[in-house]
Specification:
Blueprint (H helix, E strand, L loop, with lengths): L17 H7 L9 H22 L9 H30 L6 H14 L4 H13 L15 H38 L31 H28 L1 H26 L7 E2 L6 H6 L8 H5 L7 H6 L8 H12 L12 H11 L9 E2 L4 H9 L1
Antiparallel strand pairs: 1-2
Helix pairs in contact: 2-3, 3-4, 3-5, 3-8, 4-7, 6-8, 6-13, 6-14, 7-8
Length: 385
């Protein structure tokens, strides 16, 4: 089933209200259960523990080719499992984990700190991502670059060609993208909270970072988030002194990198397509942004990652809806939105979709009006004519 959606700029007059969308979803889908959520944490924890136990049997010195292959396979599988915990911590940040804010923040803080994610800091920037989805100035994470990208990378693209540049895009996004976002707010908003163009580094670790409101509550939360990450690093160093740094590195670092790759992959693919509009100040509305996301199939990984990629439209409309009800809610939303041509779904295999996006979605021409991604080869062709 291929690309059901034919993305188009949405007119405000054709959009439903939040109340209308909520009415089509069964009421029980909004009910949260701490027990169900904690069982999912345990489920993922058992998978992670089993993989740790299996990897413990592998040698850490004088590795043969087979040993390296097995460690590589472990890294991928464990990073995939880490992502399950990562998604549940993300659910905690949205308040969808349980009815208890204390339980949500406790579980979310522990799980995200384990993945070296500053929990409260990212909770804030991610809430901004949801409140300003597909806004070209105020959106947060995977905001399309402008014409400056064409000037910055046009020569490189001409030199190495479409396919090599696509590989470059995949590498920079999946390997460098997450740390670059946390440290430099790469692909983040173009404007500050005061509406001014960003001229300083908006990182996720300093309480004084201009990414956050200047008040004591958020200063404390950002500080605690950084302490959580430092505690995990300290724990890894201590563990290395006990069982060996090579073993700790092999057990944690590749899995950490794969986890980062997965979370960037999801965000990139759910918000990027040549047919998907992004909006300037004068044309953006919250509902336009929420509905300008795409659901995609991810096979067995969809189960591992609590359906975060296949139910993303529902997640953006109702971000505190529990993941274990998201599939049912998505079916209800699809039945209502699809006849109105307002539901976005792309059934392309996600690896193929990743390649297409890396080749065809590079920049937008402007930050005003309705903008669509363009490939660098199109700019080259236009220049030639």
């Amino acid at each position: 089933e291929q690309d059901k959606k034919q993305g188009h700029a949405l007119a405000s007059s054709e959009l439903p209200t939040v109340g209308e969308l909520k009415a089509v979803i069964p009421a029980h889908c909004f009910e949260r259960s701490a027990t169900k959520s904690l069982l999912l944490v345990v489920r993922d924890g058992l998978i992670i523990s089993a993989l740790f136990a299996l990897a413990w049997q592998l040698p850490c010195e004088n590795l043969s080719l087979v040993d390296w292959i097995l460690w590589g396979l472990y890294g991928f599988l464990q990073g995939t499992a880490f992502t399950g915990w990562w998604v549940l911590a993300h659910e905690c940040g949205h308040g969808g984990f349980s009815d208890s804010a204390i339980l949500n923040d406790t579980v979310g803080f522990v799980l995200h700190s384990f993945c070296l994610v500053p929990y409260f800091s990212w909770q804030y920037s991610h809430a901004k991502h949801h409140s300003k989805t597909n806004h070209l100035l105020d959106g947060e994470s995977h905001v399309p670059p402008g014409a400056g990208f064409r000037k910055q990378f046009g020569k490189l693209h001409s030199l190495i060609g479409d396919d090599a540049f696509a590989l470059f895009q995949i590498y920079t996004h999946l390997v460098l993208g997450w740390p670059m976002y946390l440290v430099f707010n790469s692909t983040g908003a173009r404007r500050t909270l005061d509406g001014e163009r960003i001229k300083t580094i908006h990182d996720h670790f300093r309480p004084s970072s201009k990414l956050f409101p200047a008040n004591g509550r958020w200063n404390t939360r950002v500080f605690l988030s950084s302490v959580g990450c430092l505690a995990t690093l300290a724990g890894l160093v201590w563990l290395g002194s006990v069982i060996g740094y090579t073993r700790v590195g092999l057990l944690y670092v590749p899995a950490y990198l794969w986890c980062n790759a997965w979370l960037v992959l999801y965000t990139w693919l759910q918000h990027t397509s040549p047919e998907l509009p992004h909006y300037g100040d004068e044309s953006w509305t919250w509902m336009k942004g929420a509905l300008s996301t795409i659901d995609r199939p991810y096979g067995v990984f969809d189960w591992m990652h609590h359906h975060i990629g296949s139910t993303h439209v529902a997640h953006h409309v109702f971000s505190n809806l529990p993941c274990y009800h998201a599939q049912e809610a998505t079916r209800a939303l699809k039945a209502y939105l699809e006849p109105k041509k307002l539901y976005n779904y792309d059934g392309t295999n996600f690896v193929v979709a990743l390649w297409r996006i890396a080749r065809d979605c590079h920049y937008v021409e402007d930050v005003k009006g309705d903008q669509y991604y363009k490939p660098l080869r199109q700019a080259k062709s236009a220049k030639a004519h």
